[in-house]
């Protein structure tokens, strides 16, 4: 029996240089990375589907794979999504000829075939690549990784029902079927859903029972309130009851959403009806109109201010009143909030009640601005739970925050201290898949070589951001190790704020306990940049948060290794920034991640190498001539050419290369750069692979206080790197006296001195600039400039 591919494609393919008979996906991607010109391609046999082939091409530094499958009538076609016409071909040669032209459905035309080679493929670098064996199929890779991850998890579920055993059986068997189905027009996770079948049936029954009771209460309150849409609600209830017998996995999310919507609707209906009834019983009428008026903006004297000497005394008596509203089932209330500028206190009074509660400005622990509703503000008071208040509009919310900042500025005037400043420690270490030593305290004391901190100045930092790569220690064990080390070094119990793990890449954030209440909007994300941007052995993890009014982003990464793969590392950097869309602010989603935060720290094993001979690097290091080594650093060159890390800074490097040492030793004679590989000798010259860079808004305050490498932690071939910073606070803007937001001489402007744009289109459209900001209620546009065209032709500027 013969297969269609063998009958129609093999004879022609075997004579073509683009056909590679006995290579796998890893060797394919290595060949494409070495031939990075757009349109480079090759075809190989499929590892998973018998009789099929895989067409692989590269475009804009990204590798794309297309499966070529045999049809029932003995022809070949490129697998496509459902609904897309499949074009048949008699042979692979015809297929390549057709797709060598633009606009035929592929990401780019096939123009540069990659020829076969009989040389042995160079195996991956076991020290820093850790790629898997060439013969392994992708589903085996995923299965092996998931089983290893499962063994490191702390299981807090009941294992008596056999779920863990069924899960392990799934990961070693049926998961391969689910993986293979991902390439079909209608992928299904059939076997994964079977794992949760019994639990889904139990949840379905509970939801059906809950929905019946919610519908009953909804109908009761609607009838009591005289609603006219009871019939409409009843029809909706009947539709739900028609699905009451559904117990499958796919309908569970729909039922959960309907349940959530119904509970919210019940909350609104019952609250309105009970409030109306209570008002009728007590004889009180409901207040009408808006929530209230807000006093004039601070920045100038209030209306009817006395003149001359009485003005200052009267201004000290200013008390600004705000009306807000909270939400919640049975807890939605109107509040009057009075801000007393003279005494520096806030008074909260529920609408319609005589009792009130007063707090000093020091008891206001957090003001949390909502990123979804412009008028909402979360207020956390000492000894109280957070409560969200809805102001009448965004201006009222901003005015309230300005007044609180104004009070704090007055109270701190003359102290010479910035109580909003924060000290940050950033550490990165490629652990080399080895367990850490018992004592890693030197890392957290910023002790070693380079710009270090004297022991007397090694004070506890407010925030610790610890990034690791090739970490085979469980997250629980690693967190315990860090917490214990901080306790030993600073005699303080730090609290974990957040953590993110992607295979061996991990980022954890610890903060002082007294600062927990100052931190809001914590988010995390991760991006894979391993083989085909699918595996997580390379990639990045990120965590963002607000410390008071200062937004911070920390990204720990592990980029592609190899001296010759500089362009691949550059692409990894952009893939990570682009892939971490979850960290962006919703309003600024279309902007680059580096423009989203007051301070962004990017660190890890960046793997950029030094373009010098190994012995030359060692000699420079022994003479402490680090500048000569850094001059040939690949990352420095790429940054100078503005190919990557535009706008980033790095502290001066005053320490020897952190890679590659013999494990257990750290003298400058202990660098090891020769590796015997199957394809020959591979050189890994000593390099500054481990780095810490940062990017900050103009005008913000940040000062680097240390940047160096430890010399007494030797379990890996990399040395741990440390950096510390002092970051100034960002205060709520308060206009200076006489400089409000009015008109005339007192008006405030935003002036853009220079703006450059590279227009990549030949159209003659009139372009304009959209301006976004969290301090704006909407989007602003500049006026379209007079049409003009400037062309540089043979070095001569010509304007039309």
From TrEMBL:
It is a peripheral membrane protein. Its EC number is 3.1.3.86. Pfam families: C2_SHIP1-2_first, Exo_endo_phos2, SH2. Keywords: Adaptive immunity, Cytoplasm, Cytoskeleton, Hydrolase, Immunity, Innate immunity, Membrane, Phosphoprotein, SH2 domain. GO terms for biological process: adaptive immune response; innate immune response; phosphatidylinositol dephosphorylation; regulation of immune response; regulation of signal transduction. The keyword Transmembrane does not apply. It is an enzyme of class 3 (hydrolase). It comes from the Eukaryota. It is found in: Cytoplasm, Cytoskeleton; Membrane. SMART domains: IPPc, SH2. GO terms for cellular component: cytoskeleton; membrane. Belongs to the inositol 1,4,5-trisphosphate 5-phosphatase family. This is phosphatidylinositol-3,4,5-trisphosphate 5-phosphatase. It comes from Geodia barretti.
């Amino acid at each position: 029996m013969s297969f269609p591919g063998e009958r129609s494609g093999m004879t022609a393919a075997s004579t073509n240089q683009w056909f590679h008979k006995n290579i796998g996906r890893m060797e394919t991607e290595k060949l494409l990375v070495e031939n990075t010109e757009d349109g480079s391609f090759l075809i190989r046999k499929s590892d998973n589907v018998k009789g099929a082939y895989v067409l692989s091409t590269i475009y804009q530094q990204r590798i794309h794979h297309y499966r070529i499958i045999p049809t029932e009538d003995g022809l070949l076609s490129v697998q496509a999504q459902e609904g897309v016409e499949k074009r048949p071909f008699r042979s692979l040669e015809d297929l390549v000829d057709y797709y060598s032209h633009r606009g035929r459905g592929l990401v780019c035309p096939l123009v540069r075939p990659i020829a076969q080679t009989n040389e042995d493929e160079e195996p991956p670098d076991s020290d820093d690549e850790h790629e898997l064996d060439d013969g392994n199929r992708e589903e085996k890779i995923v299965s092996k990784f998931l089983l290893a991850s499962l063994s490191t998890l702390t299981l807090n579920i009941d294992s008596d029902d056999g779920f863990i055993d069924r899960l392990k059986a799934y990961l070693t068997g049926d998961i391969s079927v689910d993986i293979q189905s991902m390439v079909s027009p209608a992928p299904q996770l059939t076997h994964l859903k079977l794992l949760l079948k019994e639990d889904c049936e139990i949840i379905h029954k509970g939801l059906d029972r809950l929905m019946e009771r919610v519908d009953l209460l909804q109908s009761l309150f609607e009838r009591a309130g005289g609603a006219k849409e009871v019939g409409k609600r009843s029809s909706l209830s009947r539709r739900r009851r028609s699905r009451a017998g559904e117990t499958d996995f796919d309908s569970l999310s729909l039922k959960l959403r309907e349940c959530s919507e119904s509970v919210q609707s019940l909350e609104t209906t019952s609250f309105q009806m009970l409030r109306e009834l209570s008002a009728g019983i007590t004889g009180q009428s409901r207040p009408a109109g808006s929530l209230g008026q807000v006093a004039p903006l601070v920045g100038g004297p209030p209306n009817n201010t006395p003149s001359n000497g009485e003005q200052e005394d009267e201004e000290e008596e200013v008390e600004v009143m705000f009306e807000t509203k909270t939400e919640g089932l049975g807890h939605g209330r109107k509040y009057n909030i009075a801000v007393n500028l003279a005494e520096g206190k806030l008074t909260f009074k529920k609408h319609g009640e005589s009792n009130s509660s007063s707090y000093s400005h020091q008891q206001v622990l957090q003001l949390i601005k909502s990123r979804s509703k412009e008028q909402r503000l979360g207020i956390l008071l000492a000894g109280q739970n957070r409560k969200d208040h809805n102001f009448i509009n965004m201006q009222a919310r901003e005015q309230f925050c300005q007044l609180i900042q104004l009070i704090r500025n007055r109270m701190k005037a003359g102290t010479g201290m910035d109580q909003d400043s924060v000290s940050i420690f950033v550490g990165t270490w490629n652990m080399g898949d080895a367990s850490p030593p018992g004592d890693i305290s030197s890392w957290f004391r910023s002790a070693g070589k380079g710009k270090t901190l004297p022991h007397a100045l090694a004070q506890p930092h407010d925030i610790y951001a610890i990034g690791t790569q090739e970490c085979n220690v469980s997250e629980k064990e690693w967190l315990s190790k860090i917490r214990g080390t901080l306790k030993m070094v600073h005699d303080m119990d730090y609290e974990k704020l957040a953590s993110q793990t992607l295979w061996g890449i991990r980022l954890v954030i610890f903060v002082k306990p007294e600062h927990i209440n100052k931190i809001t909007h914590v988010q995390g994300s991760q991006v894979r940049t391993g083989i085909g941007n699918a595996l997580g052995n390379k990639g990045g993890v990120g965590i963002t948060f607000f410390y008071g009014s200062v937004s911070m982003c920390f990204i720990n990464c592990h980029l592609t290794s190899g001296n010759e793969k500089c362009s691949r590392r550059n692409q990894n950097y952009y893939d990570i920034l682009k892939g971490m869309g979850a960290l962006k602010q919703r309003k600024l989603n279309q902007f680059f991640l580096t423009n989203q935060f007051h301070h962004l720290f990017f660190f890890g094993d960046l793997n950029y190498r030094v373009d010098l001979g190994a012995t030359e690097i060692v000699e420079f290091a022994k003479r402490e001539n680090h500048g000569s080594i850094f001059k040939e650093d690949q990352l420095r060159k790429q940054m100078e050419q503005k190919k990557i890390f535009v706008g980033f800074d790095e502290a001066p490097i005053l320490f020897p290369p952190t890679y590659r040492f013999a494990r257990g030793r750290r003298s400058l004679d202990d660098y090891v750069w020769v590796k015997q590989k199957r394809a020959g000798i591979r050189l890994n010259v000593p390099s500054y692979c481990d780095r810490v860079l940062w990017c900050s808004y103009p005008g913000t305050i940040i000062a680097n206080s240390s940047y160096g490498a430890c010399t007494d932690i030797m379990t890996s071939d990399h040395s741990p790197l440390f950096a510390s910073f002092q970051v100034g606070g960002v205060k709520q803007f308060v206009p200076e006296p006489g400089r409000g937001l009015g008109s005339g001489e007192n008006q405030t402007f935003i002036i853009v001195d220079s703006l450059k744009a590279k227009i990549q289109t030949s159209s003659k459209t009139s372009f304009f600039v959209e301006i976004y900001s969290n301090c704006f209620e909407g989007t602003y546009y500049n006026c379209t400039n007079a049409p003009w065209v400037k062309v540089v032709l043979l070095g001569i500027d010509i304007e039309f």
